[in-house]
Amino acid sequence: MHLLARAALLGAFVLAACSAPASSSPDASSVPSAGPAVPSDSVAPSEAEPSASAAPSGPVSGGPVVATFDVVDEEYRILITDPNDIAIVLQLLAGDPLAPRIPNGLVVRGDDGGVNSGYSWHIDPESLEFADLTIEICDGRPSDVEAGSISGDRFCPWEAEVVSVDPA
After folding, report:
1. Cα(34)–Cα(14) distance, integer angstroms
2. Residues 6 or more apart from 132 whose CB is under 8 A from it?
3. Cα–Cα–Cα angle for 10, 86, 52, rounded to 5 degrees
4. For residue 81, with 0-12 CB atoms within 10 Å meaning exposed, 13-18 middle and 19 or more buried, which class applies?
5. How far apart are CA 167 and CA 57, in angstroms?
6. How far apart are CA 158 and CA 100, in angstroms?
7. For 3-27, how does the pLDDT look when each residue is reduced to its tens digit (9 = 90+)?
8. Among 69, 72, 54, which Cα is nearest to 105's?
9. What percent of the chain has a predicted confidence (pLDDT) above 70?
């Protein structure tokens, strides 16, 4: 049932996007002109800086990051090395409703350098992907992975929410 509810929600988003009114297209004032370029120092500071709500919890300078996810009042961490995955996790932290929000990765037993402290497992950064929908056998809480209750070799918590992103 939970999967059907997610599919219905996804369908509602698609329907809403496809039925947007024609007046939602940009007006002429927002379309770039072919005129001379405006010097970057003439841009107001508020336009040149990203919003504070989209900022990670710590400085992220383009290298690997550690993302902390909350899953039904339990937290776990993933080392993220792929630039595309880093971009997605930053979109999720900023609240982007269109970003694929389910982290899905291969569970590796053992220490990962302390990234997922408190657990005896971690997610292989090379296997990580973000999805809109996944199969139910990899859904659960971090404590379910710890206890071995998840029958597959992947963890994909449907209720995961990014709570922080910090440099690795």
Report:
1. 34
2. 6, 10, 100, 101, 102
3. 85
4. middle
5. 9
6. 11
7. 444 444 444 433 333 333 333 333 3
8. 69
9. 64
